[in-house]
Amino acid sequence: MGVELVEVMGLCAICGRSAKLYTCPLCGKLVCSRCMDPEKGVCIQCARGRGGPAEGTGDVGTYR
């Protein structure tokens, strides 16, 4: 029983790039494949312990 990722097109909440997006099951942010941690199945911010609610934060992060 795995986590189902929802795929949509738009701007990544972390790096801002236009791409297919996936919803992080922890924080709800829509992120691109570069900003998803495939081993943990969550966004890179949640994987690093820096997640948080996507709504109203204005946080677009920095892509490295």
Task: Explain this structure.
The radius of gyration is 11 Å and the shape is globular. A hairpin with a 6-residue loop joins strand 2 (18-23) and strand 3 (30-31). The chain is 6% helix and 27% strand. Strands 1-2-3 form a 3-stranded antiparallel sheet, with no helix packed on it. It has a two-stranded antiparallel ribbon with strand order 4-5. The longest helix has 4 residues, at 44-47. It is mainly β. The protein starts with 6 loop residues before the first strand and ends in a 17-residue tail after the last helix.
List the helices and strands and how they pair.
Elements: E1 7-11, E2 18-23, E3 30-31, E4 36-37, E5 42-43, H1 44-47
Antiparallel strand pairs: 1-2, 2-3, 4-5
Any descriptors?
globular, two-stranded antiparallel ribbon, 64 residues, mainly beta, 6% helix
Question: Which structural class should the secondary elements be placed in?
Answer: mainly beta
Helix content: under 10%
Series of H and E elements: EEEEEH
Tell me, briefly, the overall form: globular
**Which regions contain 5 or more consecutive residues with pLDDT less than 50?**
54-58, 60-64
| Alpha plus pi helix count | 1
Task: Give the biggest beta sheet.
Answer: 3 strands, antiparallel
Q: Quote the beta fraction.
A: 25-35%
Q: State mean pLDDT (0 to 100 scale).
A: 80
Number of E-state strands: 5
Strand order of the largest sheet: 1-2-3
Q: What is the distance, rounded to the nearest whole angstrom, between the alpha carbons of the first and last residues? A: 32 Å
Radius of gyration over C-alpha positions, nearest whole angstrom? 11 Å
